[in-house]
Amino acid sequence: MRTKRGSSSSAGGNGIGKGDSSESGVSRVQVVCRCRPLNGKERSDGERSVVQLDADRRSVDVFGNGSSSKSSKKTFTFDKVFTDTASQREVYDAVVQPMVEEVLNVSGVEGGKG
Predict the structure, then answer these.
(1) Share of the chain above pLDDT 90, in %
(2) What H or E segment, with its residue span, contains residue 106?
(3) Residue 99 host element (H or E)
(4) Computed from CA positions of residues 109, 110, 113, 114, in that sequence, does the dihedral angle turn out positive or negative?
(5) Which residues lie below 8 Å from residue 39, measured CB to CB, with a gap of 6+?
(6) Distance of alpha carbon 9 from alpha carbon 6, whole angstroms
(7) What is the pTM (predicted TM-score) of this model?
(8) Rounded to whole angstroms, what are the CA distances from 36 to 11, 61, 92?
(9) Which of 25, 32, 44, 109 would suit a FRET pair with 74, their CA atoms being 20 to 30 Å apart?
């Protein structure tokens, strides 16, 4: 979902936050996905992941019955996809920090100091 349709420019390399605004200066809503890996109990219980993440294609395949059959697969595309090995820091640096910087710049606070 985006707040405004139309062309957008991307000054930042990650496609999130700063630089993601339409020609009118309205920022776009970015949708990202991060899925956690199976935990120890889930693995020991023989559970299998029902998602397949592709960061390059920015897509997530969800398999309804836990099998990897194409008949049960639904694919969702996001602005950015983090694999289950992504660290909290990677997510913060790519998603949160650019938004914080944009908010501080818009409100006239330079470098986080008023």
Answers:
(1) 46
(2) helix 97-106
(3) helix 97-106
(4) negative
(5) none
(6) 10
(7) 0.62
(8) 30, 14, 15
(9) 44
- Counting other chains too, the contacts that 83-91 makes at CB distance below 8 Å and 24 or more residues apart are 83/35, 83/53, 83/55, 84/35, 84/36, 84/37, 84/49, 84/53, 85/37, 86/34, 91/32, 91/34
- pLDDT score, position 83: 92
Q: Is the pLDDT of residue 9 over 50?
A: no
Structural tokens at position 22:
């339409």
**What is the rounded radius of gyration, in angstroms, for the C-alpha atoms of the chain?**
18
